[in-house]
Structures are given as C-alpha cells and as structure tokens.
Amino acid sequence: MKLAYWMYAGPAHIGTLRVASSFKNVHAIMHAPLGDDYFNVMRSMLERERDFTPVTASIVDRYVLARGSQEKVVENITRKNQEQKPDLIVLTPTCTSSILQEDLQNFISRAQGGPEDADILLADVNHYRVNEFQAADRTLEQILRFYVKSNLPKTEKPSANIIGIFTLGFHHQHDCREIFRLLKDLNIQINLIIPEGCAVTDLNKLTQAWINIVPYREIGLMAAKFLEKEFQMPYISTTPMGLVDTASWITKICQKTNCQSNYKKYIDHQTRFVSQAAWFSRSIDCQNLTGKKALVFGDATHAAGITKILVREMGINVSCAGTYCQHDGDWFREQVQGFCDQVLITDDHTRVGNMIAEIEPAAIFGTQMERHVGKRLDIPCGVISAPIHIQNFPLSYRPFLGYEGANQIADLVYNSFTLGMEDHLLEIFGGHDVKTVITKNLSTDQNLIWDPSAIDELQKIPGFVRNRIKRNTEKFARSQKTDLITLEVMYAAKEALAN
Amino acid sequence: MCTETLKFECETGNYHTFCPISCVAWLYQKISDSFFLVIGTKTCGYFLQNALGVMIFAEPRYAMAELEEGDISAQLHDFDELKRLCFQIHQDRNPSVIVWIGTCTTEIIKMDLEGMAPKIEQMIGCPIIVARANGLDYAFTQGEDTVLAAIAHRCPEKKQITAQQDLVLFGSLPNIVAEQLTTELANQGIHVSGWLPEARYEELPELGPGVYVCGVHPFLSRTATTLMRRRKCQLIGAPFPIGPDGTRAWIEKICHVFQIQPQNLEQRENYIWQSLQPYISLIQGRSVFFMGDNLLEICLARFLVRCGMIVYEIGIPYMDKRFQASELKLLEKTCQQMNVPMPRIVEKPDNYNQVQRIRALQPDLVITGLAHSNPLEARGITTKWSVEFTFAQIHGFTNARDILELVTRPLRRNNHLKDLGWSQLVASQT
After folding, report:
1. pLDDT tens digits for A447-487?
2. Where are the transmembrane segments (chain A) (predicted)?
3. Does the CB of B68 have a partner CB in chain A at under 8 Å?
4. What is the pLDDT of residue A63?
5. Which of A4, A68, A118, B108 meets the CB 3.0–4.6 Å disulfide criterion with B64?
6. Checking phi first, is residue B110 left (phi over 0); if not, alpha (psi -120 to 50) or beta?
C-alpha cells in the first residue's frame, strides 16, 4: 500500500480506451463497477467532443459478484452489435474486474456473432503492472496484430504512416497537422494516420507505406516494432521537436525513402527564414535568458525534447530534467545526458515539488502539477506535457512539433521567464510592488511568527525576490528550532546563506 | 384535473454517474478536522484527481491508500500496511477522525476493514470510521449516505431528557446553508439541537431514544435507517427543503410533529415565489428530462413542475419509496395542481435508451451528466450539467433562486445565441 495524493499517469484501462475510442467505429465495453466510466466525461469535457464517446460500461454489481458476469457481458456485446454496428468491440477489463478472474476470453467466443457482426478483442493488459501509456502502446499493437495480415505492394510514391495520434493526447491534433504539412513539403504521402479517425477495416493498407513515423515514444513504438519485424517496415522514432531534432527527423525520413528532393536546402531555408525560432535564439531577447536556471519535468518525449531545446537552442541552464515514465528511464537518461545537471526519474509529485523548492529555478517546464507548485512558490511555469487541464486543449493552432512547433515553444519559453528586459529593469530600480507579504509556501508548517519589525523589513525587499527571502528565512528559522522570526533571525539567515 | 398516479419503471442500470467515493470532496471540507483515506486502486485515485480538479493542489485532507499487486495477492499484510499509513497520517496531520472509504477492490478481496479499524484505532488513539462507498453498491451522492450512517454510530448517547424536544438534522450542507435552515426553524420556535455532521467531528450531536431526526437530502436512506434502528431516534418523514414549496412543506411537517402552528410561512413562500418570477417566465411551459445520476431528481422535478415546467422523465439511480414517501406524494399533488401529466420515474436508467427517448421527445432541457452534455448540445438539445446541483447551494427559501439560476442558464444562453443559425453542430446523420 502506498499513500498517494496525485498521479502522473492514469490506470491501464484509460490507455486502452484512448486507443479504442480514437479509431473510427470501434466500441469499447468496460467490465467495470458503476462510476468507472469517468473516461467519457474526460473526453467529452477536455476534448470538447461532439459525439458520444463510444464506451459503455458493462456494470459489475453485487448481482454480478454472485452470479458471474457472463450473461451480462455477452448481452452487452450483442446489444452493441445491433445498436451501433461497430467494426470492432474491445472488451476492456478494469482493475476491479481483473481481480474477479473471470474468463473474459470465453465470454467473447460465446458472444462472437455472425460474419456481419463486429470483431471482438479482449484488451490484454495487466492493471497492476502497467500504466496508461504502456497499456495504450500494448492495445494499439494488439489491434494491429489482429488486422494487419499481409504485405501489400508499396505505393508508387514515397509514403508514410503516422502512428500514435490519440484522443486526449497533449496537442496531438495540432502536431499531426504540422507533420502532415512537413511531409507534404517533402513530397511524401500520408498513407494512414492511426489510431485517430482511422477505420480498423483500413488497417490492412498499413503495409503499403514505405516507412512508419512514431512521433511520441510513449505510445506507438510497440506497433512500429511489430510492423518492422513482421513486414520489414522501417520506422522513425525521433521526435521532430525543436529545430535540431526536426532537421535530423527530416534527414532520416528522406534517407529512408530515398527522397529525391533537396532536403538539405529545405531544412536550411525553413530553419533560417521560415521559422522564427532560430532567429529568436540569436536576438538580444534570448541573450537575456543565457544561463538562467530551469527545471523540466514531463513525459519522456516532451521532457527530453524541451530539455534539448532549452540548452542547445537557447542557452538556458537546465538544472534538473526529469520524467515520470519510469519504465523508459534509461532512454531518458541517455537523451538528456550532458544537457542537464541532474536527472530525476520518479512518479512522486512531492519529490518533484521538493526539487523545485530546492533549486528555485527561474522557470519550470512541466505538467499541470508543476504549474501549481510554481504558483505556490511564485515561479513561472510553462506546461509542456500531460497530465493537463482543459486549458491545454486550445482551440487555436498550437503544435509542439516541426517548424511551427519551434515557434510555439520559443514563445512559451520566452513568456514563461519573467520577461527579459523587464526583469533587468526591476533589478535596477528595486521593483514596483512593495505592498503585501504573500504567505505562499510549500510547507504545512504554519506556526512561524513574524515579528512586526521583521515584517516591515520584509516589505522593503523588492517584490520579485521577497518570497524567496521569506522562504529562506523560514527555512533557516526552522533549522534553528525557533518559531519567532525577528530582525536578528532575518539577518542571521541572510548571513548563513551568504556563507 | 389530472387523476393519474406516478409510474415507476426500472431499466438496465447502464448509466453514467460519479463513483460514490466522490463524497470525500465535500465531506472533508465540511468536517474540518477529519481525514479521508480512500483504500483503492489507481482507478479510484485517477477519478478523484480528475473529478475534483484543482482542489487536489490545496493540500487536501484526503489521500489514497493505493493497493498494489502485493496487496491484492495478499503477499502484504493489510493490517500492517493500514497501520503504517494511519500512523503516518496521524503524525503529519493530527486529525480528530480518520474515515476509511472502502472501494470495489476492498469489497472483492474481502478486506476486513470493520474488523481492523477498532484495533488500529486503539493503537494510534484516533477514531477510525469505516464507510463502504463503493461502485458495486452505490451511486454518487449515496457515498455521503454511507459515511453519515457510519458516523451516526459515533454520536454520543443522549444522557438526560430535557424538557425541550430535541431535533437533529442530518445531511451535509455548507455551514452557511445549515445556519439558514436552523434560523428558519428557530423562527417557528423550533430549536435544532445539532446536525449530523457538524463542522467538527468533535461536536457531533447527542442521539438516543426521544430525539427527533429529519433529513435534508433525498439520498440519505441508510442514515435514516441507522438513526431509527440503531440509535432509536424518531424519524420525521418530510419532503426535502429544496425550492420554496419543499422548504415550506418541510418546515410544516416538523412543526406538525412538534405540535406548533407555523407562523408567516405562507407569506414567506409567496414572497419567494414573487422574487423568482423573472426566472419562472423563462421556463413556464417548457419541458425537462432528467437522465438521473445524483438522487436529487425527484425533489428538483417537483420544484420545476411547480415552476410551470413539464417533466417528461425522472431518471434516478435508486428510489427509496419509504424514505422519499412524502416527497413523492408532494410531487404527485403538485402535478395534479399544475394540471400536467405525471412524469415517468425510471430507476437504474439505461443511458442509451434515454438518448433515443430524448431524440423522440425533443425536450427543451435535459439535465444530465458531463458525459452526455456536449454530444447532446452538438445535436441542438439544451442541457444542464446535473453535478452542479450537488455542489451549488440549493436548500431553503433563500437558495431557491440559485436552482433557477442554474436551470435557466442554458435557456438564457440560447436566447443570446438564437439568431446565429448554428445550433446543430454535428454532420447530419440519418
């Protein structure tokens, strides 16, 4: 048992449902107790989805516990077949149903109807061993394995499949459009985009493509590896995030497809003149960011990508880069090696919070959780990875990948740091806000008392460093086991820190 | 004059609602010295963190005891594990009570929470209460019912019989609303001797034979049963104080039990109705469909009928005809008075069938959960998110306006956007 307040990656069935409901005309039936269909709310709210989420629960209740759920599951499958005529039904166990240890595969063979009825698959994931991402990766591979049977002749012109565009993914729709644009520029056709909007009946066409592109390594790699092994399709798992990686991504694609166009010229032109990000990094604005401290935390793809951009393309000092994708920790370590002072691989948000409090970076790039830690510590935060809120599903075009993505990231980074010149001027003129003490801190320890004279002194400190000084003083007071902060304590704290 | 009676139906139970563990969200805020420990899996945690949104960031007084593979396969000793976590909570937060919320998983692996709690309670010196608020047995607000029923056992025994008759109200309400209802009764000369729950665990009211109890929420049937059978209290069965009509009927019933002639109630009710007139003119003659997910449906429907609306269907997760008897009677009476057809009451509804009925009936307003709101809106059907009724202040005379504020909001929005010509926003399907 583990005391937990918050988690970065969701339970396994969420991953399976994300895959199933991204396909067209695929219905998922969850074997779950009442209330576990919260996925429908998330999809309807976060994605502002106009259609009913194709997920139904086959409810596990007392009656089912006593009698077994066979009848119910079979009945629900037959019913869905009639009501919605899906191509595929994915029976999705949940953590509750998996401990019932019913033979769901057997129910499926009983429910299997005539040739006009849907195919039925049992999502094969262990709820106590894998998380949302791993389960999604696995389910996607499972569905491909079921439908992709033969190697079709390749398309005449170079073509690619994009694997891993999902519902509820972080800026997936925008990224997909951006990749589409890039490939079009390179004269590479898109064969299939999976799973988003793809019909399972089209999946056999997958093997027509020359290559597979996996933009995010969390979900899609297993499928790509399967296609490579069974059908000798090469895949590219580089993420085209930032100018450098976009360039190497384009190079790899063009080499693997024997692209005739002059891609080197294309990259150079895009980098220097179409995208603004390269020019931004040379402009004097970005100069002010040089050596500023940042902390990056998120899923493996985004955290590694952003870390490399900050360091390599903007000259920012990443004090700590981290990911919650523990199963992919080795890859992450290898990627950010040499780009950051330390690596943090954990799914415990308090460890990340403490790390932020300790480092006190000038900006954080993380998930919604890090954004809230930043709020409490008065450190700005740019959100670069799931888990996310509804505000991270913007209506406007906001890719993270490709050349437009590089522009978006540059804006995000620049706006997250206290604006360069403004910061400079504040430092020179001693700040413009000297009104109130803000009592935000990360500690639950509220019993420190500030002497009025110390409060006065604190007010005199410019606003943008006041909180840091307040925190440091309190930290010092605690270490001295004193709970009254007087002027003396404050000065002693300052001295202690200076040494 | 319409002479039908209410019709009850029961469907498949394939409907969307919140998991009953969501009750920790409002209960930990209400009982300010409590700590709620939800003993469940990642699924429960994921639901809580997403459903409760930003609240999680304010150092909530609740946490998950997340079961891992070792717990499920009994490689770890659950007693030691729970003891360890409760020690830690006790040390870090020092709550006056720890509430264990049992979930589906603890049910299925038959974890003996009720057996372990007293032992651990003794070891750490902090009361531990067990409530089985799981999705196998309950829906959404019924979570509060299980917690309050468990807390009812811990209320101190009534020691001396006072001259005055004791009245304890049960149901968790924001402190300000509880205060408003207490004052309404005080105006009639009725003293409320306590609430279950109070704002602090340590202030729980005394219970015992001779104490009258009355509920303020329609989903508290287990609590009512516990109070009657185990604590020997006398239950006052009344309609619920939601809407001015409900509030008046509620007060009248309590007055009747205490043999008091209610004063100025009719004027007070009429005055409230008058102040609601601008809202009522928006909904008069409109139709409404409750898909059902929080058990407030009967009393809300009754209030809306009284406001002049026509209710097509009242979906409801669970219908306790005994606990809701007065409320159902009032609904029937209201329908007759307003001369509208009786709504069909559908227990354990089937959301898929309901959507088909909604398509056929084209109601002016559908009160439903978030899973269906956006898809229905995209098809030109106006919806109101039902969970808001659980979190908004809707009890008593003063808050009737808030109910109508919620109900009319989508209709007012429609009035603003009506001439734009884009109410149907899905590609036409035949």
Report:
1. 788 888 888 888 877 776 788 888 888 888 888 888 888 88
2. none
3. yes
4. 85
5. A4
6. left
